[in-house]
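Postdoc handover notes: sequence design on the structure in folder B. Input tokens:
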């Protein structure tokens, strides 16, 4: 009986050893295959170059928790070293600081929003991060002519808004009218396409009320409190914008008493202000400098004549200004003719070495050293 038990135990042990051996052979085969792959295809860096041409040794990680380190031997081969992976946990990257990352471009950074009675207003973050920096479209930083083109009035027409977002190059800045419809939806689509956006707010013209810019217009006859309330009611309608651009407003822009509290509020919220450049009496420059508000003026209104060839001529003028002074800003409404002309001209401008940038890349910013 004892002999039978011993025989059975010996057979079981043999089966176990065979299974273990098969498993070890499979692991070894996988390792050999990995080493063979490493020799036949040297590892690539993110930019597509051989790692051996950079610093010699490269590292990789497998899903099984193993670090693989490959070192070139000088004869075209590699020595591969396997070590356990560090288990200290993943590195967390703050994606909200990654600029125009399409994964988060349509989502507001909650740290840059303030809950108020009016709704969620933009605000500078506790760490000093401004909305105009968070939502800015990155640019190359290279020397050369830079042009910002702003297409305004988005949100007022569904077909016009869709055409601008879908057809214009990502470098073109889009301005959404505060009185428009479905602004959050359009904003999200525009941001995912790579556009920097502005909020277009109506200001009082000289011939008001015969010429009425629309509901919520900021008026010189109102108190500062009432105008700030109207500004905030416009601001909460959409998020993820870098700044404010005026719609009309020659009278309001020329009134320092009316303008100062508005521009102070824009500055404290970490936004920029773009003046459309149509009023020679505007006080935007002096007030903005005084309150350290990043600001800029449009150099050319592109669609004074709503005809494609006329707009193309204005765009050529814009390019010449940029060649001469380094930067230039043009503004137009979201007409079919404007969109067609800007799309066509932008392709030519890129070939000429003119970079199409967001407005935030051109503003005068005295708040920064």
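Designed sequence:
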């Amino acid at each position: 009986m004892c002999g039978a038990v011993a025989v059975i135990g010996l057979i079981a042990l043999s089966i176990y050893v065979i299974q273990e051996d098969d498993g070890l052979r499979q692991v070894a085969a996988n390792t050999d295959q990995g080493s063979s792959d490493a020799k036949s295809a040297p590892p690539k860096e993110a930019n597509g170059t051989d790692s051996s041409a950079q610093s010699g040794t490269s590292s990789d990680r497998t899903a099984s928790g193993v670090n693989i380190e490959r070192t070139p031997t000088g004869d075209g081969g590699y020595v591969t070293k396997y070590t356990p992976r560090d288990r200290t946990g993943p590195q967390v990257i703050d994606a909200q600081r990654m600029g125009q990352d399409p994964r988060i471009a349509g989502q507001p950074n909650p740290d840059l929003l303030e809950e108020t009675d009016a709704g969620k207003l933009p605000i500078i973050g506790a760490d000093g991060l401004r909305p105009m920096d968070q939502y800015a479209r990155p640019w190359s930083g290279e020397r050369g002519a830079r042009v910002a083109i702003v297409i305004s009035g988005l949100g007022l027409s569904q077909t016009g808004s869709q055409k601008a977002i879908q057809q214009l190059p990502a470098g073109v800045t889009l301005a959404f009218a505060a009185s428009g419809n479905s602004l959050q939806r359009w904003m999200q689509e525009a941001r995912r396409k790579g556009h920097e956006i502005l909020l277009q707010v109506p200001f009082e013209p000289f011939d008001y009320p015969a010429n009425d810019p629309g509901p919520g217009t900021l008026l010189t006859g109102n108190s500062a409190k009432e105008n700030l309330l109207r500004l905030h009611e416009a601001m909460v309608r959409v998020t993820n914008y870098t700044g404010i651009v005026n719609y009309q407003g020659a009278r309001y822009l020329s009134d320092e008493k009316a303008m100062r509290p508005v521009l102070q509020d824009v500055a404290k919220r970490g936004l920029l202000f773009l003046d459309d450049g149509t009023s020679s009496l505007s006080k935007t420059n002096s007030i903005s400098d005084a309150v350290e508000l990043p600001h800029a003026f449009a150099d050319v209104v592109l669609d004074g004549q709503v005809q494609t060839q006329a707009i193309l001529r204005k765009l050529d003028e814009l390019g010449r200004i940029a060649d001469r002074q380094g930067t230039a800003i043009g503004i137009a409404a979201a007409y079919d003719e404007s969109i067609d002309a800007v799309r066509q001209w932008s392709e030519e401008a890129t070939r000429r070495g003119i970079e199409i940038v967001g407005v935030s890349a051109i503003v005068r910013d005295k708040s920064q050293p």
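Context for whoever picks this up: The chain has two domains: 56-83, 101-361. Don't rerun without checking with the PI first.
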